[in-house]
Write the C-alpha cells for this entry.
Amino acid sequence: MQLHLRSNKQNIAIFIAILFHVCGAIGILFSPYKDWFIANTPLNLLLMTALLFWVQPRKSLGFFLFFSISFLVGMGTEMIGVNTGKLFGDYHYGNVMGKKLNGVPYLIGINWFILTFCIGVLMTKISNWTEDKYESLGVRLKPWIVTASFLFDGGFLATLFDFNIEPVANKLGFWQWKGGVIPGFNYICWFVISAQLVLLFKKLDFDKDNQFAIHLLIIQSLFFITLQIYLP
C-alpha cells in the first residue's frame, strides 16, 4: 500500500512538471503572452521544489541539511560572483527571478539545490548500477574510484546543464554577462562548486531514491534545449 501511494505521488509530480514545462515552452515560443510566462518563472521553480519535497521519502535530518547547505553555498558563491567578479565572471541578475539578497535572487539558491539534488540522485543510480555490474563479473571497485567518479561525473553533468541554460537565460533576462560574452571561467567555477555539493550529497545519510528528481532533470534539460533551438 505504501509503495503504491509513493508511486502515485511520483506519477502526479512528473505529470505536473511536464505540464508546466510544456505550457511554459509553448507560451514563451508561440503565444503573445511571452512576458507573462517569463515573469512566472519563480512560480515554476518554487512548485518544482515543493514537488521534490513532497515525493521525497523519509525526510531525515540529512535531507534538510543538504537543502540548507546547497542553498547557502549557492547564495554565497553567487554573491561573491555578482559583487566581486572573482567567481563565475562579470555578470548581474535581472528582476525576473524575484527578490534579491546582495544582488542575488533567493531563487538562485533554491535552483542550486534543485540541480545538485537531481544530479545527486541520478549519480547514485548510475553508481549503484555500475558497482553491481562489476560485482557480477567478480570485480569490486575501490571506494576511492567510486567517489572520484561520483564527484567528477556529477560536476560535469551540472556544468553541462549550465552550458545548456546560459544562452537561454541571457535572452530571457534571468541574468546578463558584461559584453554579452560567457567566460570559460564561469564553467570552471560551476564544475568545482557543483562537484563539491554532489560529493556532499553522496556523503550525507538520507534516502536518495527519489525517481521524480531524475525525471525533473530530464524535463528541465529538454525545456532549455527546446528554447535554445527555437527562441529567436
